[in-house]
Structure to design on (368 residues):
């Protein structure tokens, strides 16, 4: 029996899975889609270990690609609700809502026998660069894709508000990990060791002293730092996990080169061996100017539309926006509350599913 989008959202929310591990999520989606009326008109494709594409083809024209992300985060939920997460993970970024929206939109397309070729992408691992991994399977080479679309819920805006901009919407993002390998020593004999934490501290001081170009939006943040085991032993190992954001990938790579030069100097000064590596990298999300001009007017007729300018948020839909002319938007969820994304209390209402579907329908109707 077909599942409704709200029930699907609740199942996803109760059973969240992390990036690249969305095994049961993928199975649930496949089963739910196969149970839809007229599902024989669809082709389900699984080119990667998780995630899927649904191919809806009616003619030989180009395709429109609509994408939702399906992964969760290693955050323990603090909401007391009937469909609370059953494990220590959580859909704290609204991906369960995105998935339910795309599923509902798929139902609409089937029911209304839409005369447009559409790819529905349920993408894994948005939080860890899954867009590039999925694209690199080569599956998209089989399709002539004209445009790509996506949305992201947020309680930064009131419920039903649609926000986007012309040009860069979301910043380019690059994760960075730095390991400092020294030698432990007792606090009474610091000369016998190589203090890894001191080397890490020198790095942070050096980053703060770099000249800032205020004309170029840029942020560097060290979100996680680990060092030491016992209070009276100076740490021989320390690790920094951070991220940087800017409006272009080129700017981030330039800054990464500066980091490497700084680390080389600190190695010479301290004798601590230092290794840096890049983590997940998201290109900036670029909104196509033609689509923006057309869809900002279209969506303004039914929704409160806001030109929000760029945000320093990272989103791996940026990868698709560099492959196809694209349009992405924020979809407001707030009814007075504001917790922010990646928060253990972030919980968009179920009514967002129908609102999000309506946004996609308006976009589709404009482009048919």
């Amino acid at each position: 029996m077909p599942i409704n989008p709200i029930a699907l959202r609740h199942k996803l929310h109760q059973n969240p899975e992390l990036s690249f591990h969305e095994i049961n999520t993928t199975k649930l989606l496949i089963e739910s889609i196969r149970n839809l009326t007229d599902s024989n008109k669809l082709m389900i494709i699984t080119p990667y270990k998780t995630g899927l594409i649904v191919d809806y083809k009616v003619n030989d024209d180009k395709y429109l690609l609509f994408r939702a992300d399906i992964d969760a985060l290693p955050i323990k939920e603090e909401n007391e609700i009937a469909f609370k997460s059953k494990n220590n993970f959580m859909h704290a970024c609204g991906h369960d809502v995105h998935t339910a929206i795309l599923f509902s939109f798929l139902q609409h397309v089937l029911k209304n026998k839409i005369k447009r070729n559409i790819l529905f992408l349920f993408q894994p691992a948005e939080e860890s660069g899954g867009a590039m991994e999925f694209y690199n399977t080569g599956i998209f080479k089989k399709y002539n894709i004209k445009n790509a679309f996506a949305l992201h819920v947020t309680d930064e805006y009131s419920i039903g508000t649609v926000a986007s901009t012309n040009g860069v919407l979301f910043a380019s993002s690059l994760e960075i990990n730095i390991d400092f390998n020294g030698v432990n020593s007792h606090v009474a004999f610091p000369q016998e060791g190589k203090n890894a934490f001191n080397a890490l501290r020198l790095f942070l001081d050096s980053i703060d002293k770099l000249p800032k170009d205020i004309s170029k939006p840029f942020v560097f943040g060290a979100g996680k730092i680990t060092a030491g085991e016992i209070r009276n032993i100076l740490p021989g190992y320390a690790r920094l996990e951070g991220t940087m954001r800017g409006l272009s990938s080129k700017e981030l790579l330039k800054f990464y080169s500066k980091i490497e030069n700084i680390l080389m100097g600190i190695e010479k000064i301290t004798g601590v061996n230092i290794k840096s590596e890049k983590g997940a990298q998201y290109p900036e999300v670029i909104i196509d100017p033609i689509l923006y001009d057309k869809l900002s007017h279209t969506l303004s007729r039914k929704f409160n539309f806001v030109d929000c300018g760029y945000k320093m948020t990272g989103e791996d839909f940026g990868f698709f926006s560099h492959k196809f002319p694209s349009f992405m938007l924020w979809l407001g969820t707030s009814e007075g509350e504001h917790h922010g994304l990646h928060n253990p209390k972030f919980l968009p209402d179920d009514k967002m599913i129908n609102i999000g579907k309506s946004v996609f329908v308006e976009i589709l109707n404009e482009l048919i």
